[in-house]
From TrEMBL:
This is histidine--tRNA ligase. It comes from Mustela putorius furo (European domestic ferret). GO terms for molecular function: ATP binding; histidine-tRNA ligase activity; identical protein binding; RNA binding. InterPro entries: aa-tRNA-synth_II, aa-tRNA-synth_II/BPL/LPL, Anticodon-bd, Anticodon-bd_dom_sf, His-tRNA-ligase, HisRS-like_core, HisRS/HisZ, HisRS_anticodon. GO terms for biological process: histidyl-tRNA aminoacylation.
Length: 505
């Protein structure tokens, strides 16, 4: 029998001593041993993950963080937009970020493939909302609302390859305004276009044009040109590209890729290259082919009435009847519109091409899709392209070198001496209670120069200074950061004096 080494003999001795112990002790020792083994295995499995060196901290593709500077620009845009919506009497509405998948399917045509689906949660198939319009229609049907003027600001999600340089993202914000209810023709539609003009003018984006068409005119045009009804959607999708590619390229796509007869494509080309105002509508009403189509005639009649109202609103020169406008969403049934910025030659070199900055239209059948009896609620609305507008304004601010204030602090509470934290806290509490936006440094004994430099860096307009002399005399020094002038104000008059100065600035 081969001899055992010292370590082997000790192991045998340990095992023998365990076998001779009471059984309870053996079990406890075994449990403890297995627990240690399990812990070691888990630790060894986790260790490689902890030690990964190629981990990259980033936001998901098509999303972004917004810095405090960017949020200032964004809030100004949203304040302008929401202020306009409120001026026109809209109520605010919010809906969940996700909907039942069946609520969103078959509402967006070819774009349905861009909907973000979620995993089965509690027996429900869910999807992130693609826009704010379909959830609004679902809300109207679910709550049996027949009339409503609403606005909604919220994020939506689209599973596409984003072109971030053009302000396109997978997650982005939409600002919608909609009018639901049965009204006389074209009055709500005209107000939507008026709202668009007010917002785009107020944001000072430069000259713009709103293209207008009607789905009835579009469908009637395709029919009289000889397009099979089964190809309406596919051909509309090609026409919608005319703002990005030439007519020759669009024609080639229709014929070579979508199987349209060349002579049919040529007839379409005669129409979609036309744009103008009321005179073009009159011309189309007299067109030998188009005037034979009932749908097209109804659409042209409504557009003529629309331009009458737009003239009364003083915005007709901003609107163009454009037969190439073919917005792709399936739920549009009548007037459709899209706003684009017009660039001068000088601007085109330095500006970003962001496409349309606002769009919308009439969707009279969407609410009925959610109603078991198909009861319809006519609707018309618009959506402001916040991300694209933000991209333009952000670029302009960067180019100009303009400094952006990231806080709204009006007053800074400072001291030139040590051991004055309690007095500063009492003073700033008094300012906060009076509704004044105020700050102080979170230090017991900050240097006065440090405090004043902070005010200049943050562009805080006023500083109140309290020290031994001021405390003894019952006054506070009030300093203008811009002029560096100081005046002594009685403690009890400080809030009134600050409020007066802020109202005058």
């Amino acid at each position: 029998m081969p001899s055992f080494g010292l370590r082997h003999r000790r192991a045998w001795a340990s095992l023998l001593s365990q076998l001779l112990r009471p059984s309870g002790l053996v079990c406890i020792r075994e449990v403890h041993f297995h627990s240690q083994v399990s812990e070691a295995v888990i630790t060894s499995q986790l260790k490689p993950h902890r030690e990964k060196s190629n981990f990259i901290i980033k936001t998901p593709k098509g999303t972004r963080d917004l810095s405090p500077q960017q949020m200032v620009i964004r809030e100004k845009i949203l304040d302008m937009v929401v202020g306009c919506f409120k001026r026109h009497g809209a109520k605010r509405l919010d809906t969940p970020a996700f909907e039942l998948k069946e609520m969103l399917t078959e509402k967006y045509g070819e774009d349905s493939g861009l909907i973000y689906d979620l995993k089965d949660q509690g027996g429900e198939l869910l999807s992130l909302r693609y826009d704010l319009t379909v959830p609004f229609a679902r809300y109207l049907a679910m709550n049996k609302v027949k009339r409503m003027k609403r606005y909604h600001v919220g994020k939506v999600w689209r599973r596409e390859s984003p072109t971030i340089v053009q302000g396109r993202y997978r997650e982005f914000c939409q600002c919608d305004f909609d009018i639901a209810g049965q009204f006389d023709p074209m009055i709500p539609d005209a107000e939507c276009l008026k709202i668009m003009c007010e917002i785009l003018s107020g944001l000072q984006l430069g000259d713009f044009l709103i293209k207008v068409n009607d789905r009835r005119i579009l469908d009637g045009m395709l029919a009289v040109c000889g397009v099979p009804e089964s190809k309406f959607h596919a051909i509309c999708s090609s026409i919608d590209k005319l703002d990005k590619i030439s007519w020759n390229d669009v024609r080639h796509e229709m014929v070579a890729k979508k199987g349209l007869a060349p002579e049919v494509a040529d007839r379409i080309g005669d129409y979609v290259q036309c744009h103008g105002g009321v005179s073009l509508i009159e011309e189309m009403l007299q067109d030998s082919r188009l005037s034979q189509n009932k749908q097209a005639l109804e659409g042209l009649g409504d557009l003529k009435l629309l331009f009458e109202y737009l003239t009364l609103f003083g915005i007709a020169e901003k609107i163009s009847f454009d037969l190439s406008l073919a917005r792709g969403l399936d739920y549009y049934t009548g007037v459709i519109y899209e706003a684009v910025l017009l660039q001068t030659p000088a601007q085109s070199e330095e500006s970003l091409n962001v496409g349309s900055v606002a769009a919308g239209g009439r969707y009279d059948g969407l609410v009925g899709m959610f109603n078991p009896k198909g009861h319809k609620v006519p609707c018309v609305g618009l959506s402001i392209g916040v991300e694209r507008i933000f991209t333009i304004l952000e670029q302009r601010i960067k180019t100009s070198g303009q400094k952006i204030r990231t806080t709204e602090t009006q007053v800074f509470v400072a001291t030139p001496q040590k051991n004055f934290l309690h007095e500063r806290l009492k003073l700033i509490s008094e300012l906060w209670d009076a509704g004044i936006k105020a700050e102080l440094l979170y230090k017991n004994n900050p240097k006065l120069l440090t405090q004043l430099h902070y005010c200049e860096h943050m562009a805080i307009p006023l500083v109140v200074i309290i020290g031994e002399q001021e405390l003894k005399e019952g006054v506070i020094k009030l300093r203008s950061v811009a002029s560096r002038e100081e005046v002594a104000i009685k403690r009890e008059s400080l809030v009134t004096e600050i409020q007066k100065r802020l109202s005058e600035s």
